[in-house]
Amino acid sequence: SAVLAAVPLMAKSRDEVGQILLVGILVIPPLGINLSIGGLALIGWSTQDSLALGALMALLRQPHARSRWPLNTDVPYLLVVLLMFIIATRGFPPTFLPRQAVSFVFAWIIPYYVITRSVGSVEALERLILWLASAAAMLAAIAVFESYRTWPLYAGLEDRFGVPHDMILIKVREGWMRA
Questions:
Q1: How far apart are CA 3 and CA 162, in angstroms?
Q2: How many CA atoms lie within 13 Å of 148's alpha carbon, on the beta-carbon side?
Q3: Side-chain-facing half-sphere of 94: CA atoms under 13 Å
Q4: Would you write out the chain's pLDDT as a tens digit for each of its 179 residues?
Q5: 72, 57 in Cβ contact below 8 A?
Q6: Residue 63, SS3 per DSSP
Q7: From 21, 39, 56, 94, which residue has the greatest number of CB atoms within 10 Å?
Protein backbone atom coordinates (compact mmCIF):
# COMPACT_ATOMS: atom_id res chain seq x y z
CA SER A 1 0.00 0.00 0.00
CA ALA A 2 1.00 3.64 -0.30
CA VAL A 3 1.43 3.84 3.46
CA LEU A 4 4.42 1.50 3.19
CA ALA A 5 6.32 4.16 1.26
CA ALA A 6 5.22 7.12 3.37
CA VAL A 7 7.98 7.09 5.98
CA PRO A 8 10.86 6.26 3.60
CA LEU A 9 9.79 9.10 1.28
CA MET A 10 9.17 11.72 3.97
CA ALA A 11 11.97 11.08 6.48
CA LYS A 12 15.08 13.09 5.70
CA SER A 13 17.01 12.03 8.81
CA ARG A 14 17.09 9.21 11.32
CA ASP A 15 15.33 11.38 13.93
CA GLU A 16 12.39 12.04 11.60
CA VAL A 17 11.70 8.33 11.04
CA GLY A 18 10.40 7.85 14.58
CA GLN A 19 8.53 11.15 14.52
CA ILE A 20 6.68 10.35 11.32
CA LEU A 21 5.91 6.83 12.50
CA LEU A 22 4.50 8.05 15.81
CA VAL A 23 2.25 10.65 14.19
CA GLY A 24 1.20 8.19 11.48
CA ILE A 25 0.21 5.51 13.98
CA LEU A 26 -1.94 8.03 15.83
CA VAL A 27 -3.51 9.80 12.86
CA ILE A 28 -3.90 7.21 10.07
CA PRO A 29 -7.03 5.06 10.51
CA PRO A 30 -6.26 1.38 11.13
CA LEU A 31 -7.86 0.00 7.99
CA GLY A 32 -7.03 -3.64 7.57
CA ILE A 33 -7.47 -6.79 5.55
CA ASN A 34 -6.95 -10.45 6.30
CA LEU A 35 -4.10 -11.94 4.31
CA SER A 36 -4.81 -15.50 3.25
CA ILE A 37 -3.68 -18.15 0.83
CA GLY A 38 -6.63 -19.96 -0.61
CA GLY A 39 -8.89 -20.56 2.36
CA LEU A 40 -6.08 -20.46 4.92
CA ALA A 41 -6.07 -17.26 6.95
CA LEU A 42 -2.53 -16.07 7.61
CA ILE A 43 -2.53 -12.74 9.43
CA GLY A 44 -4.45 -9.51 9.65
CA TRP A 45 -2.64 -6.64 7.93
CA SER A 46 -3.45 -3.00 8.64
CA THR A 47 -2.24 0.42 7.58
CA GLN A 48 -0.25 0.60 10.84
CA ASP A 49 1.58 -2.60 9.90
CA SER A 50 2.52 -1.11 6.53
CA LEU A 51 3.60 2.10 8.23
CA ALA A 52 5.77 0.20 10.74
CA LEU A 53 7.40 -1.88 8.01
CA GLY A 54 8.11 1.23 5.94
CA ALA A 55 9.58 2.97 8.99
CA LEU A 56 11.81 -0.01 9.70
CA MET A 57 13.06 0.08 6.11
CA ALA A 58 13.69 3.83 6.39
CA LEU A 59 15.52 3.41 9.70
CA LEU A 60 17.76 0.68 8.33
CA ARG A 61 18.50 2.80 5.25
CA GLN A 62 19.59 5.85 7.28
CA PRO A 63 23.20 6.09 8.46
CA HIS A 64 23.35 5.62 12.18
CA ALA A 65 25.62 6.22 15.05
CA ARG A 66 25.92 3.88 17.99
CA SER A 67 22.59 3.49 19.75
CA ARG A 68 22.25 5.23 23.10
CA TRP A 69 19.83 2.54 24.23
CA PRO A 70 21.46 -0.36 26.07
CA LEU A 71 19.69 -3.63 25.40
CA ASN A 72 18.74 -4.13 29.06
CA THR A 73 16.38 -1.12 28.82
CA ASP A 74 14.28 -3.11 26.33
CA VAL A 75 13.64 -5.97 28.75
CA PRO A 76 10.71 -4.42 30.71
CA TYR A 77 8.92 -3.50 27.48
CA LEU A 78 9.48 -6.94 25.98
CA LEU A 79 8.16 -8.58 29.16
CA VAL A 80 4.98 -6.50 28.96
CA VAL A 81 4.56 -7.46 25.28
CA LEU A 82 5.15 -11.11 26.18
CA LEU A 83 2.47 -10.88 28.87
CA MET A 84 0.02 -9.34 26.39
CA PHE A 85 0.87 -12.12 23.91
CA ILE A 86 0.18 -14.82 26.52
CA ILE A 87 -3.13 -13.19 27.41
CA ALA A 88 -4.12 -12.83 23.73
CA THR A 89 -3.31 -16.44 22.84
CA ARG A 90 -4.65 -18.17 25.93
CA GLY A 91 -7.16 -20.85 25.01
CA PHE A 92 -6.45 -20.85 21.28
CA PRO A 93 -5.00 -23.77 19.29
CA PRO A 94 -1.23 -23.91 18.71
CA THR A 95 -1.66 -22.96 15.05
CA PHE A 96 -2.89 -19.55 16.20
CA LEU A 97 0.40 -18.75 17.99
CA PRO A 98 2.60 -17.99 14.93
CA ARG A 99 -0.07 -15.77 13.36
CA GLN A 100 -0.51 -13.84 16.58
CA ALA A 101 3.27 -13.60 17.03
CA VAL A 102 3.65 -11.99 13.60
CA SER A 103 0.83 -9.56 14.41
CA PHE A 104 2.48 -8.64 17.71
CA VAL A 105 5.84 -8.07 16.02
CA PHE A 106 4.31 -5.60 13.56
CA ALA A 107 2.02 -3.93 16.09
CA TRP A 108 4.33 -3.65 19.11
CA ILE A 109 7.95 -4.66 18.52
CA ILE A 110 8.77 -2.87 15.25
CA PRO A 111 7.23 0.52 16.24
CA TYR A 112 9.00 0.36 19.61
CA TYR A 113 12.31 -0.49 17.97
CA VAL A 114 12.00 2.25 15.34
CA ILE A 115 10.94 4.97 17.77
CA THR A 116 13.55 4.17 20.41
CA ARG A 117 16.38 3.76 17.90
CA SER A 118 15.55 6.91 15.96
CA VAL A 119 16.01 9.12 19.03
CA GLY A 120 19.71 9.90 19.13
CA SER A 121 19.86 12.99 21.33
CA VAL A 122 17.93 15.04 23.87
CA GLU A 123 16.94 17.48 21.12
CA ALA A 124 15.55 14.61 19.05
CA LEU A 125 13.52 13.44 22.05
CA GLU A 126 12.16 16.97 22.51
CA ARG A 127 11.18 17.09 18.83
CA LEU A 128 9.51 13.68 19.16
CA ILE A 129 7.43 14.97 22.08
CA LEU A 130 6.56 18.08 20.05
CA TRP A 131 5.39 15.88 17.15
CA LEU A 132 3.32 13.84 19.61
CA ALA A 133 1.69 17.01 20.96
CA SER A 134 1.01 18.16 17.38
CA ALA A 135 -0.72 14.87 16.58
CA ALA A 136 -2.79 15.21 19.76
CA ALA A 137 -3.83 18.73 18.72
CA MET A 138 -4.88 17.48 15.26
CA LEU A 139 -6.92 14.66 16.77
CA ALA A 140 -8.51 17.02 19.28
CA ALA A 141 -9.61 19.36 16.49
CA ILE A 142 -11.13 16.44 14.57
CA ALA A 143 -12.88 15.12 17.69
CA VAL A 144 -14.38 18.55 18.48
CA PHE A 145 -15.62 18.89 14.89
CA GLU A 146 -17.08 15.38 14.88
CA SER A 147 -18.87 15.83 18.19
CA TYR A 148 -20.24 19.23 17.15
CA ARG A 149 -21.49 18.02 13.74
CA THR A 150 -22.85 14.65 14.92
CA TRP A 151 -19.99 12.55 13.60
CA PRO A 152 -20.17 13.23 9.81
CA LEU A 153 -16.99 11.28 9.18
CA TYR A 154 -18.84 8.09 10.12
CA ALA A 155 -22.00 8.88 8.12
CA GLY A 156 -20.92 7.31 4.82
CA LEU A 157 -19.10 4.26 6.16
CA GLU A 158 -22.01 1.85 5.82
CA ASP A 159 -22.85 2.74 2.22
CA ARG A 160 -19.34 3.21 0.90
CA PHE A 161 -17.35 0.52 2.73
CA GLY A 162 -20.01 -1.88 4.01
CA VAL A 163 -19.22 -1.24 7.68
CA PRO A 164 -22.13 -2.61 9.76
CA HIS A 165 -24.30 -0.05 11.53
CA ASP A 166 -23.48 -1.60 14.92
CA MET A 167 -19.77 -0.95 14.34
CA ILE A 168 -20.50 2.68 13.48
CA LEU A 169 -22.36 3.13 16.78
CA ILE A 170 -19.36 1.71 18.63
CA LYS A 171 -17.04 4.13 16.82
CA VAL A 172 -19.33 7.06 17.66
CA ARG A 173 -19.25 6.07 21.33
CA GLU A 174 -15.46 5.84 21.19
CA GLY A 175 -15.37 9.27 19.58
CA TRP A 176 -17.47 10.76 22.35
CA MET A 177 -15.05 9.32 24.88
CA ARG A 178 -12.10 10.85 22.99
CA ALA A 179 -13.79 14.25 22.70
A1: 22
A2: 6
A3: 0
A4: 688 999 999 998 888 999 999 998 888 887 888 888 887 778 888 888 999 999 999 998 887 665 666 778 889 999 999 999 999 999 888 888 988 999 999 999 999 999 988 888 889 889 999 999 998 898 888 777 776 766 666 666 666 777 665 655 555 555 555 55
A5: no
A6: coil
A7: 21
